[in-house]
Amino acid sequence: MCNVIQRRGVDNGQRKSKNNEEQDEIENNSRRSFTFVYHLQTETSKIQVCKTFFLNTLCISAQTVRTVFNKMNSAGYIKEDQRGKACKNSMLDESVKQSVRNHIMLFETIDSHYCRQKTERKYLPPTLNVCKMYALYEEFCLDNNIERRATESMYRHIFTTEFNISFFLPKKDLCDVCHSYENSLTDEKLRMEQAYQQHIENKNLARSLKNADKEKAKANPSFCAAVFDYQQVLPAPKTEVGVTYYKLKLSTFKFTVFNLASKEAFCYMWHECVGKRGSSEIGSGLTLFIEHHVRKGIKEFSFFSDNCPGQNKNKFLFSLYIYLAQKYSIKICHTFLERGHTHNEGDSVHSVIEKVARNIPVYTPDQWFSLVRASKRKNSYVVVEMSQQSIFDLKKLTEVASINWDKKDTNDKVYWSEIKIVKTDPEEPNIIFYKNSYKDENEFKKICILKRGRKSIGVNINEIHL
C-alpha cells in the first residue's frame, strides 16, 4: 500500500486562485500541513484516483490508510508487523508453569454432596477464587525464592485448562428432567411430553402427601411427620488464613431431622474419626430420633427424604425400620420425594447455619457443634454429639436378620429405583410394604425379608457398633 499512497505538501502551485491576494490569504489561514494523494498501480503507470474509489477498490477503511502512513519511515518503508511477537504462555519457561502447577496442587479439595460420588471433578472451598489463589501464589513465590513468576492471566489459563477443579457453590439440586424438557426443541418436547407430565404429577403428589402428613401431625399428638437430609461437609479449620487452604482438613458431618409439626430441628453431628457418611450413620440418627419421640407417646412416624440409594433407599435402613417397628410397636412410613424436587423445610436449617458460619472462623469440630447450637436464638437447634458407641453397623443387622430383598410375595423381581413409598407394621413383622406410585388407589406390595426358619429379628441393635 505504501507504493500507492504518496504524501504531498500543500503548495501554491497546486491550487487555483483568482489573484495573489486570495492566494496569500489561503497560505496564512490553512491549518493543513499535508494531504494524501491516492494512486492505483497498473502494469505501466500509476493512475491517480479519489479517496472513495481507492478505499472501495481495496476494501479497506480510512483508518487503515492512516495506520500505514504513521508506520512508514522516511524511505517509504513500513516497519515489520509486531503482532504475534509477544511472549506466549507456550513459549514461557517451563519452570514458571511448573511453579503454578505445584502451587495449585497444594490446595486441599472437598467433596460435593450435590454431585455424583464417582465424579472426577474436584472442588475447592467456596471462599476461594482464582484472584485469591493468585495472591497466595505470589506469597508462595516469595517464601520459596522463586524469582520468575507467572502473571495472573497465565495462572488462570493453567488452572482452567490443566486442572479439573471448580469452586464449590452450595445450591439446591437441579432437576435434570425439567431442565432437559425446558431446553429441548419442539420435536423433542413432543417425545418427552408424556414422561414430563408424569414427572410433574409425581412432584405434586409427593408434596401433597408431605403437606397432608404435616397437618395430620399437628392435629394428632401420636403421629410424627419429619424430613431428613445431610448437610454439606463442614471442614475444620475453616478460616481465611492462606496457609490453611493447603492443609488437610478434618471433616465434620451433620445429619438433620426436621419435625414438620413442632418445627424442631435435631442435628446429629460427628467428625470423620467417629463415623462416615452413609446409611449406618443415618439409621443411627433416626434411631435416636425415634426413641426420643416414642418416649413422648408417638406411635406412628412418617419420614420424607431424597432418593439417594447409598444413604436412604436401601435394605440396611429398611431392616432398621422392621426392627424398630417390632421393638417399640410403632408404624414407620418413608416417602421418597420425586427426583429433582427434594427440597424441603429442612433446607432452611442448613441455610441458617451456612449464613452464620460465613464470617466466623472455625478450628475444631467442637466449635462446629457450638456454632450450630447458637445459630438460632428462638427455637434453637437440638445438637446431639454422636460417639462411636451410638453409631450402629446396619450391615451387620441386615446380614443377621434377612436374606430376601429381590423378590416380592408373588415371586416377581423388585426394582428398588422405582419404589416411591415403603412402610412397616408391627402387626406384620418381617414384612416391608412398598408402592411404586404416590397415588392412594395403588395397593402396597409385600417383601418378606426374613431368613428361612426365623420368626422375628432377634437382634439387639445396641450390641452392634462400628
UniProtKB/TrEMBL annotation:
Top-rank lineage group of the source organism: Eukaryota
Domain DUF7869: from-to ranges: 305-402
Skewed-composition ranges (Basic and acidic residues): 8-21
Pfam families: DUF7869
MF term (GO), any: oxidoreductase activity, acting on paired donors, with incorporation or reduction of molecular oxygen, reduced ascorbate as one donor, and incorporation of one atom of oxygen
Cofactor: Cu(2+)
Residue ranges of the region described as Disordered: 1-27
UniProt xrefs under InterPro entries: Cu2_ascorb_mOase_CS-2 (IPR014783), DUF7869 (IPR057191)
Protein name, entry field: DUF7869 domain-containing protein
